[in-house]
Each structure stands twice: as structure tokens, then as C-alpha cells.
UniProtKB/TrEMBL annotation:
GO biological process, one term: proteolysis
Region (Disordered): 78-97
Stated name of the protein: Peptidase A2 domain-containing protein
Peptidase A2 domain residues: 137-174
GO molecular function: aspartic-type endopeptidase activity
Residue ranges, compositional bias (Polar residues): 86-97
PROSITE patterns: ASP_PROT_RETROV
Domain of life from the UniProt record: Eukaryota
Protein keywords: Hydrolase
InterPro entries, alphabetized: Peptidase_A2_cat, Peptidase_aspartic_dom_sf
Amino acid sequence: NSDIGDTSSSSCIICSSKHYLAKCPQYISKTTQQRYSILTKHGRCYNCLGAHRVSDCHSTKRCIKCGRKHHTTIHKQPSLDKQVDSTKATTPQETVTKSSSSQVLHLNINSTHATSCVLLATAQVVIINQKGSTLQIRALIDQGSEITLITERVAQNLKLSRSHSWIPLVGVGGHSSCKTRGVTSFKIAAIYENSETLEVSAHILPKLTNSIPSVSIDMHQWQHLIGLTLADPHFLQPLAVDMIIGADVYHQIIREGLKKGPIDSPIAQLTAFGWIISGPTSANRTSLLTNSYHASMDQQLFDVLRKFWEQQEVCINKSSSLSPEEQACEKHFQDTHSRDPQGRYVVSLPFKRSAKELG
């Protein structure tokens, strides 16, 4: 939300110039704590910088660094002592990543012996929003995921409209790793001209994986891969993943065509995006970070939560439960209420116009 700023007023609360608060040079020059104090002093929203409380904020924008409900300009970097020093591991240790790093569906195994690097199937795809705007990203093709996922960064960059969704995800080992931040729909296509487009529904998460592959790999003489139109021309370079294409979409992109080489060499599978490459390589390294991807919805917990809200919901028929005077008061509030610069509500009192005379 760093490109949105304060949309509630045309004048800056610091220098009174005609620009948004997030664009003010004086505001930008402050430290994170000083910016936070400025927002508190002027009663501004910590999420969109508007003239209201954050609890009343209806903006769907979130911090582009962590995906939480605060403005990017007041994002605080986590302290270093909270990060795990994996270099201290002397024996193989299997752990599931914690929410402090915002990683999901990710299995870490620290080891001291040399192992080969394995390529996971990736593709460069173009995401198209409802208005036709596009963004090229790297996607991981993962049959181990029941649903398709995208990052908060992509959703905000393309201003994708989202529906409320709070679905717990279950990762490797049955651990509930995180919860989605909404669901959205868009189209995807290959990076090549005249490629077909597919309608996709995806759940939103702050972050999906580490960069893959975990190390740079030199192009070997894999004769069976020469001349192929690759879905990801940069599949040998560690790059960020902004989308996981799950099994719900996999059947739409798979095509007939499989190319195999010698043992311990990757294979190529034809898809709607081009040829995807996956499998072992001869690249070795002494510290292995193994990526094992699997995600499924915790349907039991989701159903329990949905049933809870259905039971707690109270249906109110306003026309039958409110008296004429109460309806007039409600309309009076809707027509006259406003907010002052400090974010407080201002409304006139609903006096009776036809009050009976006393005595």
C-alpha cells in the first residue's frame, strides 16, 4: 500500500501541501517510530493513513513487505535474534518453517553432507486482471497442492478484487502452517504470443516459498532439452515464486509430450506454457535446503468455523423491528453524520418536530 497514501484529504497534515501524506518528503525522511507517532498524534489510520481509526478501515490494501494490516511506511523489520541460524546445525534436523518468516508449505532439512540439487517445475506466466493490466511472474507447478496460491504482492500490484476467505492450510507432516488472506480470480497465459488464456481462482498468502532452485546451476549438455520452447527460460536461476499452480489447475495446462534423458538428468513435460523442466541435476552443494511442497485445506476446521458464524448470525428485518420514530432516527443519522479532522463522528441531535405542547 505504499503507492496509495492518504486518500482521504488533498492536503498534507504535515506541510499542508497538495499531496498525499505518503508522498510528503518530510514524512518520508522520518524514522518508522516517528511516522507512527505522527499518525497517532493526528488520529490517522495506521493502514491507509486516512482520517479514521484502523478498526474502521475498509481498505483491502496491506503492507507490501509482510502483508499485515498496516501501512508500508510504518513497517518494522523483525529483530535479528528472531531469525534461525541454520549454520549451527551439526546433525540432520527436520523442521517445519514457522510463521515468523511467513513461509508455508516448506520443509527445511539442514545437512552437512554433499547432495545433488533437484529442479522443481517452474513457468514464467502472465497474469491478467479484470481491466486487462498484466504482470509477468514465476509460477511453481505443484501437483502436491490442492489449491492455487498467489502472493499478496501480486494481488496488490494488479489491484485484484478479493472475496473474504479464511482457510487454514495443512502442510507437510499435517501441520497447520498458515491461513489465507482472501481469494481472487484472474486470467493467466504463457509469455509467448498467441498463447491461450485460462481462468484461475487463487488464494492469497503473504509469501509462498524461498527462491528456487536453491543454488545457481550451470547448463549441462542435456541433449534431450536442446531446442525446446521452455516455459521458464530462466529455470536454472534462483528466482522468487509468486504463484503456485495447484492440482485444481494442473489438468488444464498439461499436454501430451515427455522427454527423458540419462539417469540423474531432468525430464521435460509439455504444458500450455511451454516445456517445464524438473528432476535431478549433477550440481552438488554441502548444505541442502530441501523443498517439499504440499498444501491442503483444513476442511474440518473450516466447516466448524463456518457453522459457528452461521449460528451466531442474527437476521434482522428492519422494517418490522423498528418503529417509525426509530427508522426516522436511523435515516437522520445516515443523512447528517460526518467526521472531523481527528476522525470523530459528528451528528446533529434528532429533535422531534411535532412535539406536543406541555400543560
